[in-house]
User: What shape does this take?
Amino acid sequence: MPYADPAVQAAYLKAYYAKDKERFVTKAKEYYARHPEVWLDYRTRNIERIRPMKNASTNRRAAKLRALVAAARVSCVDCGAPPEHLHHVDPATKLFPLGAVARQSVAAVEAEIAKCVSLCQPCHVERHKQLKQKKNQTQEGE
Assistant: This one.
């Protein structure tokens, strides 16, 4: 039976995941290594989810930019699984998120992609966790 209060349910799920996170991440990596078509299907749906523009020429341009982003996702640099995300290596150099490429120039998108590496979902989460820990250690050391 679902929780009456969504906030209580969210807190429970967060604690449940945190309690045994390593097992969840390992299971996800194993599953998606065995079923790469699931990752590819999810990635395709995410790219198509970007809202189309109003006229045909803008739609063609936006499709070209989305194709650039999709082509940059080769394989996860950490584990070799099919990638889902492009991760900015240095967050300080990030000019715009790659999910919002429709209004950017081709040169700007190519420059932004050059600052990124391809990662699968679990590896991307781990990278951000490490960045957050490093940031917290830096703040504590000051």
About this structure: The radius of gyration is 18 Å. The chain has one domain: 6-141. Residues 6-141 form one domain.
